Recover the amino acids of this structure.
């Protein structure tokens, strides 16, 4: 089951509170529930109570069945706890409690591992862990553009996509409010201040590098999509699955696409060692196109036992509530992969003079993902590479024959479109 990003505690709050109170023989001064992250990514919850000197409680990590007993003291806001797993000491915790927040360091019994962690009282959290995707459409200096924003708890990343096929520009922001979002354009180096002027309307004026003329961007918010995340952390392995939420049919298809990877995670969760956080894995998505007809993107999977990224593309027909299978239309045409790779090499030569030889060598060996259906043709992507990133190219309908797809198959594909 894919869960929401906000961590669902292993026990109902009333049950964990009863368990915590049962650790004391006398009345407690206070009892609080906390949520946070260990090592910056491992979701966890704390239930702690204090009787004036003793501080006791439980730590539940992720959505697994792993629970730790905590026993120790709190003096002058200084927290010192011994952690036990199934009755056996498993680690030390030291930290500070201040203004409802807990900042601590967990250390293993042999002192060979240490992790920092930050927790907040659940009553102080105001949807900080909610992640969303915002889809905006409009114009930039009379060019049609689409802005896709991924809003994470601590930052926002964006993709500015041009309808004329110009390279996508990447945006990043650590600052934002309901009225103004300020982005650094990582691709081109300028700053964008996106101002919410009226309901779902946004505008921005900025100077492009090398020019003195102000550029104008006008956008309308078309939709916001929630992100569902399943976090799992056993005593030995951590994994997370991040998928967009659109409707029940779409979510069912996405779960089907991830089942092989989820099984791989389960099969390898005890691999290598029994140390905490020994193995990690992640399934995440990139939304490439969102229209009234289609949702297109790429699912990626990485793990610590293979140390590589594997990807799958998807195109979802919103009207038919079904995934569109483009790959079968390409079968039987042996030359199309070479044609696509040559287009990617040619695009690199047009836009950059650096690393041409190494880039061409990589392209010729790279794996192409199944194409994505989009307005006017197909988009092709390679697997992600740590050095060269992810190459892509767009091929319109009129260039898909005869080398890549037969006329009869193209006509069938366009009818599907």
């Amino acid at each position: 089951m894919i869960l929401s990003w906000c961590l669902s505690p292993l026990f109902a709050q009333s049950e964990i509170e009863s368990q915590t109170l049962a650790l004391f023989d006398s009345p407690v001064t206070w009892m609080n529930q906390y949520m946070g992250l260990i090592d910056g990514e491992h979701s966890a919850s704390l239930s702690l109570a204090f009787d004036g000197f003793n501080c006791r409680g439980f730590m539940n990590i992720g959505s697994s069945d792993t629970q730790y007993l905590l026993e120790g003291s709190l003096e002058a806001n200084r927290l010192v706890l011994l952690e036990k797993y199934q009755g056996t000491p498993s680690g030390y915790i030291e930290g500070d409690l201040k203004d409802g927040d807990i900042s601590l360091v967990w250390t293993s019994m042999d002192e060979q591992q240490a992790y920092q962690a930050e927790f907040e009282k659940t009553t102080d959290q105001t949807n900080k862990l909610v992640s969303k995707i915002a889809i905006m459409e409009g114009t930039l200096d009379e060019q049609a553009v689409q802005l896709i924003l991924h809003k994470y708890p601590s930052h926002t990343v964006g993709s500015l996509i041009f309808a004329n096929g110009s390279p996508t520009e990447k945006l990043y922001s650590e600052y934002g409010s309901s009225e103004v979002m300020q982005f650094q354009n990582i691709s081109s180096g300028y700053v964008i201040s996106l101002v919410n002027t009226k309901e779902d309307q946004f505008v921005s004026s900025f100077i492009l590098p090398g020019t003195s003329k102000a550029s104008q961007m006008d956008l309308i918010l078309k939709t916001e999509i929630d992100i569902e995340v399943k976090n799992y952390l056993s005593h030995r392995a951590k994994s997370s699955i991040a998928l967009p939420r659109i409707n029940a049919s779409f979510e069912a298809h996405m779960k089907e696409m991830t089942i092989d990877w989820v099984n791989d995670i389960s099969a390898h969760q005890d691999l290598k060692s029994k140390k905490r956080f020994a193995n990690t894995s992640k399934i995440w998505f990139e939304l490439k196109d969102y229209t009234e007809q289609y949702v297109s993107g790429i699912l990626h999977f990485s793990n610590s036992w293979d140390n590589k990224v594997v990807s799958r593309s998807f195109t979802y027909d919103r009207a038919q509530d079904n995934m569109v299978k483009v790959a079968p239309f390409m079968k039987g045409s042996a030359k199309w992969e070479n044609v696509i790779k040559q287009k990617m090499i040619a695009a690199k030569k047009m836009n950059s003079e650096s690393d041409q030889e190494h880039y061409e060598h990589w392209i010729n060996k790279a794996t192409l993902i199944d194409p994505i259906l989009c307005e006017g043709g197909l988009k092709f992507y390679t697997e992600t590479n740590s050095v060269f990133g992810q190459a892509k190219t767009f091929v319109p309908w009129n260039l898909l024959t005869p080398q890549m797809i037969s006329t009869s198959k193209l006509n069938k594909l366009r009818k599907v479109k």
Notes: Residues 12 and 96 are 26 Å apart (CA to CA). Residues 1-12, 124-129 have pLDDT under 50 and may be disordered. Helices lie at 13-21, 248-268, 327-330, 336-351, 356-365, 407-416. The longest strand covers residues 214-233.
